């Protein structure tokens, strides 16, 4: 069982969420900070965790089960490598005084403290594994094909510059270029279909693919799933890129 060093409590609502950081033995290490419950807020929150040197392997982020309010952040954190715990609100409420002051600042501290004191009882959250794993495999395959495509294009370019060349070699490379390009389009179409199949997953994954470093982690490959300088700079850019492949 993983032993966590840092415990992040998140009190989440429809428009924003409050987060604080605690350590064991229990004490508040970083006071509550508010973030927007949207894509930009998720990126800021990830930067805040990294700014305070919270390593994913030794950190758990705990939040109450609030349905659609918490799903987006949970997907984002999980894909970023952090352990996420989603607890029934009643479990946490039972551990603290009924007459305790009810504020977002205190609530996120209670959640962090609960995670610290009841680490062995936390309900660790997992995304829909089928979609996530399929997308990861497709991204890895796409990157492999992208490298091959570049190699064949470079080889064909070199052959065309020769004074004496082989028509068979030219045709072989041209055929491979066309086949690989078609395979990449098919992969992009399937990625788009998978993304569109889950609205929450769709917005979060498009965001993740646009954040430097995160798309690489999703794909499990050393280079992004976009060749050359074609990498979209925003979630909208990623969506347009995939939409163009449909």
List the main descriptive attributes of the protein structure presented here:
Nucleotidyltransferase, domain 5, alpha/beta, 5 strands, single chain, five-stranded mixed β-sheet, 246 residues, 9 helices
Description:
- It is a single chain.
- The protein is an alpha/beta fold and 246 residues long.
- The protein has 2 domains: 6-121, Nucleotidyltransferase, domain 5 (2-Layer Sandwich); 129-243.
- It has helices at 39-51, 68-79, 89-93, 104-117, 129-161, 167-196, 199-210, 214-219, 235-243, and strands at residues 6-12, 16-23, 27-36, 59-64, 83-87.
- It has a 5-stranded mixed sheet with strand order 3-2-1-4-5.
- α2 runs parallel beside α7.
- The protein is elongated, with a radius of gyration of 23 Å.
- Mean pLDDT is 82; it is low at 219-246.
Give a concise summary.
The chain has 9 helices and 5 strands, in the order βββαβαβααααααα. By secondary structure, the protein is an alpha/beta fold.
Strand content: 5-15%
Total strand segments: 5
User: Please, what is the average pLDDT?
Assistant: 82
Architecture (CATH level 2) name of the largest domain = 2-Layer Sandwich
Helix content: 40-55%
Q: State the order of secondary-structure elements, H for helix, E for strand.
A: EEEHEHEHHHHHHH
What is the C-level CATH assignment of the largest domain? Answer: Alpha Beta
Q: What is the CA-based Rg, rounded?
A: 23 Å
């Amino acid at each position: 069982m993983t032993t966590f060093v840092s415990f992040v409590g998140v009190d989440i609502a429809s428009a924003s969420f409050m987060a604080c950081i605690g350590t064991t033995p229990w004490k508040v290490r970083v006071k509550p900070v508010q973030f927007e419950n949207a894509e930009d807020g998720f990126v800021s929150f990830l930067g805040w965790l990294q700014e305070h040197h919270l390593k994913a392997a030794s950190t758990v982020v705990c939040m109450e089960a609030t349905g659609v309010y918490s799903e987006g952040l949970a997907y984002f954190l999980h894909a970023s490598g952090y352990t996420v715990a989603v607890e029934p609100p009643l479990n946490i409420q039972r551990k603290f005084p009924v007459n305790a002051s009810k504020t977002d600042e205190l609530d996120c501290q209670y959640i962090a403290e609960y995670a610290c004191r009841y680490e062995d009882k936390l309900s660790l959250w997992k995304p829909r594994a089928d979609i996530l794993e399929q997308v990861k495999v497709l991204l890895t395959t796409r990157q492999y094909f992208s490298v091959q495509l570049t190699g064949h294009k470079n080889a064909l370019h070199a052959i065309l510059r020769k004074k004496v060349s082989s028509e068979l070699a030219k045709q072989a490379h041209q055929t491979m270029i066309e086949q690989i390009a078609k395979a990449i389009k098919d992969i992009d179409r399937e990625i788009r279909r998978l993304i569109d199949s889950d609205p929450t997953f769709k917005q979060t994954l498009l965001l993740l693919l646009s954040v430097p470093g995160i798309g690489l982690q999703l794909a499990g490959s050393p280079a992004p799933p976009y060749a050359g300088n074609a990498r979209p700079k925003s979630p909208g850019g990623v969506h347009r890129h995939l939409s163009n492949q449909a």
